Amino acid sequence: MRWQDGRPIERQDEDVVQHHDEVAPTRSLRDEPLSNSIAGMIQDFAGEVRGGFETLNTNQKEIRGLCETPGQKLADLAERTAALECGVSDLRRATEENREAIHQVKQGEESLQVKLETMENRMRRNNLRLLKVLEKLEKGDLKGLVVRLIKQGTQIEEEEEVLLKDIQHVHRDPFRKTTNRDKPRNILVCFHTYAIKEQLLSMALKNKTVSAEGTDFDIRSDLSTTTLNRQWEIGKRIAVLKRLGATAQLKFPAALKVMANNKMNVFRDIREVDGLIK
């Protein structure tokens, strides 16, 4: 007989006690998986929490990156804008320099043009042109015809023989200035002596129209095409100024003299006169 809790137990009770002793460990074995499950759940929860914190940290970094990106873009944009403004400033400066260079080139070109025109006129300083002399009067001797015309038309004192010797060469223009074949080509006469040429021109200008051998003709200086065109433009402005009651005349070779305020003004650039005409 065994005793338990101060009382005797029967055999059957002993078996129950034994069974109780055998069952008790079984109950603890059931409790052990439950604690393990709770621990696993706690670990899983902790893992999820850690994962959540990691995700949160990642999101925070991305948010900070997004916040920093516009600032960086603005800084890059400001840098590019400054570079463009610097480029525009350089371009404007280069443009102004080019304009100044072009202006200087134009001035040099105008100065060179004037010098070339002056040189060309000086090369022609001993030349005269005879206009409106009929070609049928030549009869194979153009030089003899010219001598007779200028001798009779200007009444120059020099003998025909002197004039023949002083003429270096004579010829008609190779090209017609108009399609009218009835209009004679101009005759170009080159003298050795400048004084004889000037004397003939002065006497012809006094008479305006020269007549000889039954024909009327004109004697003019042989000037460059540019000078002749300028004289033509000046002539148009002289006509307008005279209609306005002003005193105006040509200053050789291609300048305009205008009397204004009891003072004679000389305009070499005829565009300056246009302001007076308007």
TrEMBL record:
Residues 1-22 are annotated as: Disordered. This is Uncharacterized protein.
